[in-house]
Amino acid sequence: MTLQYPTIADCVGHTPLVRLQRIAGNTSNTLLLKLEGNNPAGSVKDRPALSMITRAELRGQIKPGDTLIEATSGNTGIALAMAAAIKGYKMILIMPDNSTAERKAAMTAYGAELILVTKEEGMEGARDLAEKLQAEGRGLVLDQFANGDNPIAHYNSTGPEIWQQTQGTITHFVSSMGTTGTIMGCSQYLKEQNPAVQIIGLQPMEGSAIPGIRRWPHEYLPKIFDATRVDRVVDMSQQEAEETTRRLAREEGIFCGVSSGGAVAAMLRLSHEVENAVMVAIICDRGDRYLSTGLFDPT
Known about the structure:
Layout: E1 17-19, E2 30-35, H1 46-58, E3 67-71, H2 75-87, E4 90-96, H3 101-109, E5 113-117, H4 122-135, E6 140-141, H5 149-165, E7 172-176, H6 181-193, E8 198-204, E9 232-236, H7 238-252, H8 258-271, E10 278-283
Parallel strand pairs: 2-10, 3-4, 3-6, 4-5, 7-8, 7-10, 8-9
Antiparallel strand pairs: 1-2
């Protein structure tokens, strides 16, 4: 009998769901974290990255050797660079130059070409440049912001995993909102199982800069976003998100990024409002992507 070993692509998903032990405090609620940093390229974006490329292949839109283009703030770019390396594509990634050094280095480590726009141009400028390169014939823009293969990855995997891991007892789902693919796909799946599940989205307060999530200007709002699938939107300050991120590392041993800290902070707020709830927050990525920012420096 020939043994069938998995490939790295087979290792995307099936991430752990763990319980908060200390910072939840004295509560009747169960607070759970979905550790998406355990994916091969280190974030929740591994799921849609592989989905967008694989499903485009199945439709005959692309074939190995082609060039793919994407605007990214970091995690999607790293995940796409990995997926492109797995499947044999060239990858051009466009991102704001204020993204962390670790993210930039990870993308190029996988062989991607990196193009930077200014902090002032931001993700909107990166998205505009991606479209310009596509118009010039440089490659195909996958467009995570409008590509239905993004949320369907979470409908097919993240949502079902959470439902199974909580044995259908989940009452609240909390997720930061960037492209909104995670919250859209999970919301659709979880509400199909139980319409009473509350879906809580997280966005930064005006003036706060939380990597990976945005308050989108209306003209740049992701086309995959459907506001009716989110029951509540929580505004989060950068300070509260960063403080919770440090607490997760120091009091729980959970090393993650700032958007994840913000999601947990929102979950802790909600926990004061309800009893006997089962809450799940998405831990989007790992904290090692933020070491150069000084986030975890001793105070």
